Amino acid sequence: MPSPARYGFSDSSRAEDQLRRAGWWSDAGPGAAEPIVAALSRTPDPDLALHSLERIREAAEASWPELSRSLADDIGLRGRLLGVLGDSTAFADHLVANPDDWRRLRSDAVHPTALAERTATLLSAVGARGDGVPGTPGGPVAELHGSDAVRALRAAYRGLLLDVAGHDMASLVEPTLPAVSYEKVAEALSDVAVAALRAALSVGVAELKRSGVDEVPRLAVIAMGKCGGRELNYVSDVDVVFVAEAESEIPTATRLASLMMRVAGAAFFEVDAALRPEGKTGALVRTLDGHLSYYRRWARTWEFQALLKARPVAGDEDLGARYLQAVQPLVWTAAEREGFVADVRSMRRRVEDHVPSELAERELKLGRGGLRDVEFAVQLLQMVHGRSDEALRSSSTMDALRALGEGGYVARADAADLVDSYRFLRTVEHRLQLRQLRRTHLFPPFDDSDALNVLARAVGLRSTGRNTAAQALVAEFRRHSNRVRRLHEKLFYRPLLEAVAKVPTEALRLTTEAAVERLAALGYTSPEGALRHIGALTSGMSRRASIQGTLLPMLLDLLANTPDPDGGLLAYRKVSEALAETPWYLRLLRDEGVVAERLAQLLGTSKLVPELLVRAPEVLRLLSDTQALAERDPGEAAVSLRSTVSRYSEPQRAVSAARSLRRHELLRIACGDLLGLMKPTAVFRALSSIWVAVLESALDVSMRDVARASGGQAPARIAVIGMGRLGGAELGYGSDADVLFVCEPVGGADEPTAVRFATSVVEQVRRLLGAPSQDPPLEVDIDLRPEGRQGALVRTIDSYLAYYRRWGEVWESQALLRARAVAGDPELGERFCRAIDPIRFPDGGLDEAKVREIRRIKARVDSERLPRGADPATHTKLGRGGLADVEWTLQLLQLRHAHEVPQLRTTSTVDGLRAAAEAGLLAVGDADELIEAWTLAMRMRNAVMLVRGKPGDQLPKQARELAAVAVALGYPAGVDTGAVVDDYLRVTRRARVVVERVFYDS
Questions:
Q1: Is residue 933 part of a domain?
Q2: Same domain, 904 and 984
Q3: Where is this region: Adenylyl removase (predicted)?
Q4: Measured between alpha carbons, how far is 887 from 811 in angstroms, rounded to an integer?
């Protein structure tokens, strides 16, 4: 015998009894009633639906045969009635009390759908007739009053809600019926609420007249919150604000407003006027001027946020329209208020903090990842960006979200995800409230499987595989909550919001003339040129242009705080045009405010950064991650470069890959340096490390290529010895690489063969690295080799030693002080360095003749190599107290004392000076003076390269360039450039005094 259990009834025997009494079950099963029983099985709670039907049958036995036939024949009635009864005990109670109301759910029933029709239905329920606007002079006045009016309105209102709920639930039970979207349901519920307010106002007028008041005051009812946004729940307070026409009418208008609230509260829902000026302590009704006076003088940030959803819904239509027209400009300038963004964020945190901790995880509305997260994020974005874009000025959360996505203020995917999650959470909220028509936002306990299963089926989830409907619902709830919270934090705490909010509203919508004036006031020397750049970036109707329009007002302000706003804007245009087809570029600037801020600082300071950026745009992503930008281990970057390049066998492709990776690293280091995120020594080490990695990669691929071309194994191994600043790991952005090449025969090869092979390799390395490029050059300088430019490119260790021992001059011993194995065969390189130790650290130090020779060479360098016209006081390399002064001073100490002070045997200038101080060869104060001067000169040299985009050893004389150099050095914006020069002169002058005393012994 078939059992009702197969149709999803939990209590099978009880269900069978009820089905038999309804005439839908026999010993053979449901028979002709199978469509009804099958439909019951698809309801959220089949047992509840069947039990409610039995209650209706008992309450209206006379009409039961008609209802039973209609359920069998009318699929629309079946879906709507059973859908409601399977989820709502409250509507079951209503249908038991009003047994004829089931007919309004029939497919052929004509029920009100427009606002005017719903209003007419409720007015008719209390006998109000007339063509005017309810609640105004001449409008319909209710005949019923008191408890009679309340009962009539409650029944009629429940009937209208039943219409909405029936269509909302129908497709769950009968899938062939059209589904009704959450938005349509919310709009219908909002219209029903507005109709209820109008009917309550009509009853209020009647009560007012019965009390002896003949003249009805002109009163406008302004809906706020969800009713204002046409996104109301089944059960919710309705937030309102009341506006009177004249001061003299306020007492009567207040009485009318109070009557309306009392009637609505008894018949429909609570009417909450707490959003009025001064809240619950303020006057219930004010004139329009009274409202405006308060908002202009006293209103707090959240009150403007509440006005975002203000909508006149009842009472005097003209007065309501004038109210809305008057307050809207206040809403769309509120973001300019001091601390606006912080205030909105603080309000959200306070709301969240009031949720009891034990309920926070299940709180649909106020908890983390709940509805308020979506609403606060959307409203904040609206109020910041809606000042200039009227498309965002929607009172509907869903419409505003879509507009934010279409306008480029939010990524399309993020907007779509928030729409999807908001719709899901609101649908869950609706189903929870339908159960008993009670105001609730609390998700069922996660261990209450019965409640969860019913709710899951009510939102359209069913058991899948091993997972029950309850498990599916909890998983979906958590997925949507987590997604909402993640996107809320991404959008709500976006730094861009503070930056855009600081831009005056009028600056977002300037006429050409006003724009020129504002740009000039911001410090742009060519406002007309800036306007052309702005026009080029924002022209057209593309999404890209829209996002640029959002970003530019903020970027213009940010660039105005840099040394070169005009150059920065031009650079921004070039970068934007170069990256026009890069899908994530503008999205990154919009979503990661710190990226926009840092990019503006970089572009308004440096010419090198934008040149590199158009060819290494991926570095932009690092601007939001300080650790990835500025704290990467140089060794890790070098290993990554060598590993990538080693995959290529063709030399040109390998070096091209090395250049690309070097460009990325060079830009990363430059950004970290300019933003003040890297210490100077870290910059020098990182630049040196990446140069070495490029050199190593070029040597490796060249050795493989030359060996392959000669048809065999490489007959030699090669080591690269870093000299000068490369040897000291102290390179700058524009430094050459001073090197020596050492080879050694392998595999039985003779020395001439090994040298020829190594020479071919070195020539190819120099050719590959020296090829023209838009990047800073990669020049391999081997002029420090024996015999200089006339000497062999490569030698063996014995050849080098033979030369140094027989022909070497003192300056060559001095140059070898910074020799360090940097690339190629490490063992060969280390042997070379050990072999030359007696030459660079000679036993007994230097005799006086050689000391005088070094001093003579230094004097000649000072007088002959300083470029014509250069200022020796501000030349970072050869000027007084500059790099050469400090380095020669240390090197003289090393040549004289390193044979007996091992700590001096270092290639690092700073480490060497400290070792000299520790050994008592330098006063500690003198060492500090030299280190400070050397570091400042190195930083100054780097800053000039960053600012100009090309190397330079002289402090700039042009004021704007010098200001940019100052910012690159870490001085605050707007610093007196004269003070920067004075600082440099003071530091180098003190260093020169030490040089004169220690180096020249004077």
A1: yes
A2: yes
A3: 1-496
A4: 13
CB 573 within 8 A of CB 533: yes
Which of 55, 83, 110 marks a domain boundary?
Answer: 110
**CA distances from residue 261 to 14, 197, 254, 485 in whole angstroms, order as listed:** 45, 8, 11, 36
Angstrom distance (rounded) from CA 612 to CA 722: 26
- Is-contact 794 758, C-beta < 8 A? yes
Torsion (CA) 47, 48, 49, 54 in degrees, nearest 10:
90
Instruction: List 781's β-bridge partners, or say none.
Output: 738
Tokens 């019913």 found at:
454
Q: Is the pLDDT of residue 293 over 80?
A: yes
Which token pair is 22? 């309804």
DSSP 3-state of 821: strand
Long-range contacts of residues 47-52, Cβ cutoff 8 Å, at least 24 apart: 47/9, 47/10, 47/11, 47/14, 47/15, 48/85, 48/86, 48/87, 48/89, 48/92, 48/454, 49/82, 49/85, 49/86, 50/9, 50/15, 50/18, 50/19, 50/22, 51/18, 52/85, 52/89, 52/92, 52/95
Scanning 102-181, the segments in alpha helix (DSSP H) are: 115-125, 146-173
pLDDT in tens, 355-404: 888 888 899 998 889 999 999 889 988 988 888 788 999 999 999 999 99
Task: Measure the CA dihedral 477/480/486/488, to 10°.
Answer: -110
Residue 618 makes CB contacts below 8 A (sequence gap 6+) with 664
The maximal CA–CA distance of the chain, rounded, in angstroms, is: 131
**339: helix, strand or coil:** coil
Do 943 and 872 fall within a single domain?
yes
Angle formed at CA 406 by CA 400 and CA 411, multiple of 5 degrees: 95
- Which residues are CB-contacts of 124 (< 8 A; sequence separation ≥ 6)? 156
Two tokens, residue 962: 């010098």
Q: How far apart are CA 719 and CA 908, in angstroms?
A: 20
Q: Which of 101, 42, 108 is nearest to 73 (CA)?
A: 108
> Does 783 lie in the same domain as 730?
yes
Tell me the backbone φ, ψ of residue 745, rounded to 5 degrees.
-65, 150
Angle at 686 between CA 680 and CA 692, to 5 degrees: 140
**Burial class, 774, CB count within 10 angstroms (exposed 0-12 / middle 13-18 / buried 19+):** exposed
Amino acid occupying residue 645: V
Q: Residue 819: inside a domain, yes or no?
A: yes
Give percent above pLDDT 90 in the chain. Answer: 69
**597 shares its domain with 676:** no
Q: How many structural domains are present in the chain?
A: 5
| Cα–Cα distance for residue pair 269/592, rounded to 1 Å | 43
721: Cα separation from own chain's centroid:
46
Range of the structural domain that residue 719 is part of: 617-840
Residue 338: predicted pLDDT = 81
- The answer to whether residues 460 and 514 belong to one domain is no
The amino acid at 811:
W
Of 200, 149, 165, 190, give the one whose Cα is nearest residue 79: 165
905: left (phi over 0), alpha (psi -120 to 50) or beta: beta
d(CA 53, CA 778): 87
Residues 626 and 723 in one domain: yes
Tell which phi-psi region holds residue 646, choosing left (phi > 0), alpha (psi between -120 and 50) or beta.
alpha
Report the CATH number that the domain containing residue 497 is assigned in CATH. 1.20.120.330
Residues 385, 496 within the same domain:
yes
Is residue 410 within 8 Å of residue 327, measured between CB atoms? no
Q: Render pLDDT for 527-579 as a digit per residue (tens, 0 to 9).
A: 888 888 888 888 877 888 888 877 887 788 888 889 999 999 999 999 999 99
**Residue 830: what pLDDT?**
97
844-856: average pLDDT: 91
